[in-house]
Here is the input.
Amino acid sequence: MSNKVTKAVEAIYNLETNDQLNQVIEAIKMKRTYLANMAIRSFMVGDHVQFKGRTGGAVNATVEKINKKYVIVSTHIGGEKWRVPATHLTKLSEIA
Here is the structure.
């Protein structure tokens, strides 16, 4: 674990009230939403992407549609359609 994460975990353990804990939870939810929005904005229809399938293997696909939270992709082999969270996708250009 990085030093920042270790300090954050220690700070959470030192919280004394439920209200303080709820504030931390709200901050985490807001950060997750921000990261998801940034991930969505990084993709365009036609991008070649990769994600881990249900069996854990890498699946190559092409972006077909971009929704608010999920990206619809079509796999290169078989042409199956998948609805994948943008945070689970990696552009193939970033892998190579």
Notes: The mean pLDDT is 92. The helical segments are 3-13, 18-41, 92-95. DSSP finds three helices and five strands in the chain. The CA atoms of residues 48 and 62 lie 5 Å apart.
